[in-house]
Amino acid sequence: MDIIEITDINAPELDFYRQQKETHLLHYYEPDLGVFIAESPKVIERAIKGGYTPMSILCSRKDITGEAAGVIGAANVPVYTADDETITSVTGFKLIRGALCAMRRNELSSVSDICRDAKRIAVLENVVNPTNVGAIFRSAAALGMDAVILTESCSDPLYRRSSRVSMGTVFQVPWTFMSGNNTDMELLHSLGFKTAAMALEDDSVDIDDEKLNSEEKLAVILGAEGDGLSTETIRACDYTVCIPMSHEVDSLNVAAASAVAFYQLAHLKR
Description:
The chain has helices spanning 22-26, 41-49, 61-64, 69-75, 84-91, 111-115, 130-142, 160-165, 185-190, 210-213, 231-236, 254-265; strands spanning 3-5, 35-39, 53-60, 79-82, 100-104, 120-124, 147-151, 175-178, 194-198, 205-206, 218-222, 239-242. It contains 12 helices and 12 strands.
């Protein structure tokens, strides 16, 4: 472990942390795979256990022997450190979760590979809010979903906010992107999945529907914040599913809805 005191906040080795846009980090080594930033010791630890390669760590002096000590030892990479004010000057925000770690991205698996042994998967269509994506992954991990598939317009699960909100579960649940911005129903059906669109329609069945819950392989499909699923996706699904509600509330935030759906449709299968 090499502890390096920061003397120049513009040093090239700090490029990954210096207020970089995450889309820029995604393409940092093109045509090779890019970089992402993991935040907090718990998230970094789960990323390393999930097979991601750390490149360097940035943390304040007090955290080297404090909250970040364990993960610093496990990562075994250069550690750049300074006082809190200097760290904030580098990152553009106050670091309150112990450490940042620049990590290399791994090549994503195909949808077919991700789903090969899966019985219950979540499919996210155009979910662009990284906080919602992270919360959905946390629910998927906690409540027994086998994999998560995202359309290309979804927020990247490895973005710092997504992985942080997920508490690192994005590194525990298999996931990949589906080609294109629309959900590929034919592909999911070819893999043996019945498809369940979470949407409020005239023909929606309640989430505790007996036939729905007895399906051997089920893809639970959730749509964008506000607009929900596309009409084409809903029409192509085997089921349209709603969560019964009261007080004239017609919908939940997509992250909250995912937790209810996963508990009912995945938890009961375990």
